[in-house]
Automatic annotation (TrEMBL):
This protein's name: Fibronectin type-III domain-containing protein
A biological process term (GO) from this entry: polysaccharide catabolic process
Molecular function GO terms recorded: hydrolase activity, acting on glycosyl bonds
Location of the Fibronectin type-III domain: 316-407
Organism phylogeny: Bacteria, Bacillati, Actinomycetota, Actinomycetes, Micromonosporales
Keyword rRNA processing: no
Keywords: Carbohydrate metabolism, Glycosidase, Hydrolase, Membrane, Polysaccharide degradation, Transmembrane, Transmembrane helix
Record-annotated membrane-spanning stretches: 273-297
Database matches in Gene3D superfamilies: Immunoglobulins, Tetratricopeptide repeat domain
Length: 407
């Protein structure tokens, strides 16, 4: 993009639109400005002050044409484009914020209207003046709760009441949290404490009535041992259940191997061997793939460079200096290649990402950026383009304006 200090190329389009508005041709004026904004974004930049002013006038004509939805879209896009370059405290940006508030109020969007009018009420008096119509409209909408310029916004009444009343204003809910103390439960008259009269003792006669059990090789299935059908041989007898100290019969411990001596392994063993073989095959395949990746990685001593990926190369421009002229800043630098490389100038606000604003041919060592906000700080860096994919960037150089505002 070339420097924007030349005469406005969009001025004739704006004057033609005003003539059409005076003649009552709002549709013709809208078409002229829409075409001018489109061309301005292509040939200048979407955040160029001339393009922003033309888009603002387009939003004004859309309001006159009773199309608030289209006006809101154009104004919000214009505000977003100019915020990075001009900030909220720029006179044009405050006029855009005022119109956004007017359209939002018409559409019933109170939240957006309050946000836009708040910006005008806070910054408008110092930029546009106390008696400016936009400031008066913003203050009239906000009413007594409007913020004062340079002062903190008042706190919400609820927060103020909570701080003034303190903990006494906290209402304890009816449902209380459970505590560790156990509740007191009255005993039912039907429940009696244990005594010899209501307790039964396990006696030997009742133990004798328990039928004796005989155990075979069929066992309950467990995780470690499958169900095995009994063999054709005679069933082995096991001693009856034994009673130990607590009077509870215990099952006897079965001795001997779970499978018949000299017999073949059960079907479960064959199935288990098959599962184990499948798992081993999967593990072997995973190890083989990992080994292949490792071998291929070792064969390449250095990663292949993509010719389309930008890399650092060559010396960076030096001695970058700024000449601050308020709304225009001139950037100068030293050419490290003696006139053999092109340059790209990048700009941004402090702490934000720098964006390209101009590309210059070999041998050029200065650039002027105009249309800036005189109350904001800006940072610049110059990039030397050695090839299509090799660059060298200079350190940033930033303005130091004492009256700079954070917006």
């Amino acid at each position: 993009m070339a420097a924007v200090s030349q005469a406005s190329p969009l001025g004739p389009a704006r004057r033609r639109a005003q003539e059409l508005v005076g003649a009552g041709d709002l549709a013709g004026a809208r078409a002229v400005l829409e075409k001018a904004v489109e061309l301005g974004k292509v040939n200048l930049a979407e955040d160029d002050p001339d393009v922003l002013l033309t888009a603002y006038e387009l939003g004004t004509i859309l309001q006159l044409a009773d199309d608030p939805m289209a006006a809101r879209r154009v104004l919000e896009e214009t505000y977003a484009s100019g915020l990075w370059r001009l900030g909220d405290s720029d006179p044009l940006m405050l006029r855009i914020s005022h119109d956004i508030g007017v359209v939002a109020e018409e559409l019933g969007n109170r939240h957006e209207a309050r946000k836009a009018f708040t910006r005008v009420a806070e910054l408008g008096p110092g930029v546009l003046g106390e008696g400016h119509p936009a400031v008066a409209r913003a203050r009239g909408y906000l009413g007594p709760e409007q913020p004062q310029a340079g002062m903190a916004r008042p706190e919400e009444p609820r927060a103020e009441a909570a701080r003034r009343e303190g903990p006494a204003a906290v209402v304890v809910p009816v449902v209380e949290e459970p505590t560790t103390a156990l509740p007191v439960v009255e005993q039912s008259p039907m429940v009696q404490p244990p005594s010899p009269g209501n307790q039964r003792t396990w006696v030997a006669e009742e133990q004798a009535r328990i039928p004796q059990q005989r155990w075979s090789q069929v066992e309950e299935p467990t995780i470690a041992q499958p169900v095995v059908a009994p063999g054709p041989g005679p069933t082995a007898a096991y001693p009856p259940a034994q009673v130990f100290g607590g009077g509870v019969p215990q099952q006897p411990v079965m001795e001997g191997p779970p499978y018949p001596q000299g017999g073949a392994s059960p079907a479960y063993g064959k199935k288990g061997l098959g599962i184990f073989a499948a798992i081993a095959a999967v593990l072997a395949a995973v190890i083989a793939v990992a080994a292949l990746v490792f071998v291929l990685a070792n064969r390449t001593g250095e990663p292949a460079r993509d010719p389309d990926v930008p890399t650092l190369g060559g010396a960076a421009p030096g001695d970058v200096r700024l000449k601050d002229g308020g709304s225009a800043i001139t950037v100068t630098w030293a050419d490290p290649s003696e006139g053999s490389v092109s340059f790209m100038v990048t700009m941004g606000r402090p702490g934000q990402e720098l964006k390209p604003v101009s590309t210059l041919g070999p041998g050029q060592t200065s650039f002027e950026m105009s249309g800036l906000n005189g109350e904001l700080n800006y940072c610049f860096a110059v990039v030397a383009v050695y090839r299509n994919n090799q660059f060298a960037t200079s350190p940033q150089a930033c303005t130091s304006r004492a009256t700079a505002t954070p917006r």
